[in-house]
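Support case: user asked for a sample of complex input and structure output to validate their parser. Sending the pair below.
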Amino acid sequence: MRRVAVVFALAISAAAAVLLPAPPPLTLPLEGLVVESPGISSPADAGIWYCPWAQSDAERDSTLSVASVEAAVARLTFPLAVPGEAADSATLEVPGPGAAEMSLSEVARRGDSPFLVEFAGGPAAASVLVSGTGVLAADACVAAGPQRWHFPGGSTMPGEHLTLRLFNPFPESAKVAVTAVSDIGIEAIGELRAVSVGPRSWKDIQFETLLRQRQNLVVTVEAEEGLIVPAMAFGTEADEDWWPGVGESLTWEFPVVRMGDTQASLVVSNPGSSPVDVTVDVFTPEGPVLEALTATVTPDAPLRLDLSQFPGDSLAARLTATGPVSAAVVARGATGVAVMPGLSGAESSWLLPGVGSTLGYSASLWLLNTSEEPVSATVGALTPDGLLGEMVVVPPGRPFRLEVTVEPSAGLWIEATAPVTAAWSVMGPTGVAFAAGSPVPPAGE
Amino acid sequence: MKIADPASRLHNGGAVSTKPTLDGSQAAVATVVVADSVAGVSACLAAVGQQVYGSAQVFVVGGDARMGAAAQEHGALWRRNWRGVIGSLAPEAVFVWVLSDCSRPRSDALGVLVRESSRVEASVAGCKVVDAQDQDLLVSVGYATDVFDVPYSGLQAGEVDQEQYDVIRDVASVSAASLLVRRDLFLGLGGPDPLLASAAGAVDLCQRARLLGGRIVVVPSAEVLYEGRDRVASWRERAGEIRAMLKVYSLVTLLWAVPLAFLSGAVESVAGPFLGRWPLFGFLGAWLWNIVYFPSTLLARWRARRGRVVGDEEIFRYQTGGSVRLKALYEDGVARLKARFPEGILAGFSEAVQTGQQRLRRPAVVVAMLVVLLALMASRSILFGGLPAVGYSLPPPESGAAALGAYSGGWNPAGLGSPDVLRPEVAATALAQTVLFGKAGLAVAALTLGAFLAGCFGMARLLRLWGVGQVPGYLAGAVLMAGPAAAAIAGDGNWAAMISLGVLPWAVGLPLSPWPPGWFGRAAKVAGVGLATGVVGIFAPAALPVPLAAVLLWAATGRGRRWPGVLLSLSGTLLALPLLLPWVAFADLGSLYASGAAAFWQPSWVFIAAGAALLATVAAGDRDTALVAGWGGVVAVAGAALARSGDFGLGREARAAGLAAVALGVAAVAGAALEAGGRRREFGGVRRLAGVVGALGAVVLVVATVAVALPGRAGLPEDRYRDLLAFAVGDGPVTSRVLLFGPANDLPGESRDLEGLGYRVLSPPYPRSWETYLNAPRLGDEALDRLLRDLLAGKVRRAGEALAGFGIGWVAFTEASPLQTVFDAQLDMVALRGLDMPTYRSEVATAVAMGSDGSPWTPTGTGFRRLPGAVGASVALAVNADFRWGPGDWEQTTWRSRVEGAGEVVRFAGNGARRDMAVLALAWLALLVAVSGLGSWLGRRR
């Protein structure tokens, strides 16, 4: 009997041990977190800006401009594209808020020299202005980008050249697929289906020899392995401009589409698989012309809309589409050629490094207020010594142009009471250039 | 030994008795000559014809028609097979005399055989066999066999007959040259097995006769001359021996005997060629033959065992220990060795050999040797290749002195370093390393093998206190060290806990062993208990209370003098504490049981066998074994509860302590069940059946130890890190660290957490044991954590530069992780392709210790040495800041240390108080060892 009791007690104890509850399961590593590939995006407070287009040689030089809301040290790195060779580097100190600039020739005088800028603080932005014999090109560097970049606005007619630069600032090789669509449809460029770009180097693709005599040529770059920061340069015999790629959006705003004697056109590309209807609102000094142009964009052919029919010395535009499209403005004239991608979103705060920084050229700030109410904006001139501010009122539905006369100024900081879009232009004896502003996201984003 | 009368159990219901129905002088005999050659048969029949005691019938069995003619020539009957002989036996025949055709019996042989076998009531009687050419030369005076049924004559080669064996003796088997079998038994057995060769057939016949209660004797006064040599191929004899085993042994015996037979054959096959023997083909042929004839063997087994009246024990009584063939091989080897050395050099060796031979005949010695073999097998990989680098099993530092210095108040190099005290097992291993000429591998091998053997023999010693025999005790020891619970401990990669487990039965057994009479012995015992308990605590601090708890449970459930043992164990636990200094003084003992992953142990299916053994033994065993099994069950259940208590906040250390208790308890259950199985014949009915069930359960536990033994790593997981991080080692000295990410249970040692992903920094090529346990987070660890969270948030693009500040030159992932995408996007980290795991190399030159001139300093112990030619006046150390770094002026830079005006070497000055404590612990250890050893010796002298 005693044994039975012992057996029973043992069985009960064993059962109790077996029935002890299991501890809660361990959470899986990084469970619940979305760790996305950072791509080339940068955090707002300590950004990295990639500038694929910069040149310095006997005939041209580049002005590298940085601007920051907070005091920051900007470290500029210029890869050499020679395996094993250490990159050149330079630093710029920026007061907060403030801007600084330097010539590429001070660091490296070896022709093409794409680079990246790393800010220890921010928000910040960077831009490149290339000037020299027969060239005035400017645009903002990029700190974020899509996986698929589009370059509307190019053409390869006689006397024109169109160069795609694939800049890989990372230590890993990258492989990209380059596709193109033109007036004749989707281009057969199988050799560009897998373009390999070595680590910390770049590769240029000349479309004027690859795809001759295309009136409208939209190039798309998609990274399949690694990361790539592409840029496009379009030139005529008189001038040249460069611009970064854009993504896709339903709305594009163009604070400036024309200046001086240039003729403007909007180039729209539909990367989707079905036709998209687009509507263009044109903003003239006399007021807005809503739905000034409407058209349907098919996937296999880019659309070029001529804006020369609209009066006025300055002009702005807004494009809305029923599906995602990419868009850019091309302005051509005797003074030169300027290309600028559209701005996909309005913000209350913008940084425009490089505005008014080059002596001998006239620079203008362009703001577009597409709302129905005037917007007050503080335009601060960022100088090496700090900020010099000026309050302006941006009228609704009209292009707003402000000549930048403060010297020495290396950039502007716009703070508006409501969202606007901002761009800048520069014009001189060697050409004309449009450059998009860099939006400053609200604090906390 | 009382042998039951098998009369009613023999021969197809016929009334057959082993007792003679006729007086020996009147008994009719049927003589059967087993034919092999015509000449042999003729000569044998001639000898039979000259017998003073005439045969009623003479048969010749086997061969062809020529053999029949030869038989007819001598007036004998010829039968083709044994069935024919059995069918022709005259009813008046009382004995059947089976002769080999090589036999030439002396004229009085049959008469003596009949008379003497009748007198001693033998069922089977054999003769003394001498060589026909040299009649002074002994061939056989009966055989013992080993458990594998290999006959063993016990004669020296060339041994002369001086009538030294002339006494009627019970033997396992008699020679096939001459067997006198009682007719009724002969009919009941169905005659010899026709498939077997002569010697194996004789052993088989004798064993089957013994199984039916028959007595087997050799009658040396009956002499047979043996002509020529045995013509049967040796592989047939081997095959017959295996078949004979399979026919007579119980299933329980076969469970261990058959694998051992195979193993011993394999060993013989491997070792044989070194001594000019080639048994491999015979070995293989024998097993193949048995596979082919297995169905026939099963039928024969059923026939042989259906009327049995004795068990295996009766067969074992006449067997010799060990393997006869291996012994012969060994003796041959020794003889050759002796021949090679001059007389005198091996003086004493032969005595030792003889003593060994005597011991070899004891089953306990054989099982002990098997346990040693198991220990060697189970730890062979560690013995020859060192400790696998996996989990918490990490090889010791190269320098034992450095490890001892680090333990005694020095620098703890785990992670980013700290002055925190190291775990005591690091010091204990380093001490062993220092004693063993600084060889880390040798220390690990010695500790592993030593623990394994200590566990096996300690368990046997513990169980012997409670009346459990040595054989079950040794097997229980094997279950302790290689059973399912030990496998779980080792499977966690907890090498140190395995060492602790080996000492555990000593820490439990010593307090419960008899209290010595003299003061020396008593002092030795107290010191020994403290020492054993201390070793348990040193290698598994959380298991320190386990011996006391086990003794307490025995006191509550056991019998005999036991409560004083509780006091002794408590004293031992208190005496053990100083051995753990300085760790025990500074460790966070509160969190010891809660540290690491939540404890939750999932028992394997083998525990069903343990449960069956436990229940059967407690329910049906005798009082002694039931008590032991009950105690084992309670200990195991308590341990299991502890090992599964993760839901109550207990962690890895608690699991290890709980599993140690489970291992101890299950081993006790196995030992008790095997002992109860051995005693089952003392009971009947259900209790006997329960004894078999319990023993079977224990056998399953014993067999399960093979799973630990086969891989040869003492149950530890396969090596993971020894070569995995080799990429981080260049031609020069290793100066930077690796940041390793992965699931916490896959990383070596402890790790920190980054949103559920484990990570830790370690020194390539693989972490050492002193890096196993990380310190509580300090400034540097917090800075690294912040950096990693910034990385995760995408705020860092130059991780290489940021990690360089931590001396980290490499980032690796044990498995693919989403975090890789972050490193893929870094500007100064290069992904390395083609490695076994995702790895990134920083492009920023870094070192744990970097001179102000930019040259790295190389590690030396826990300090750093300036490279030849380096001129920097200061050195920056990527270790958690501590003012004791020097010599030179120390300053803290953020979380790091910087030493200005450093000389050739910078090192951690050490914590004086901790060093004193470590010295005290060492002195205490020496004292305990001295008192234990000296006291024991002096006590015995008295």
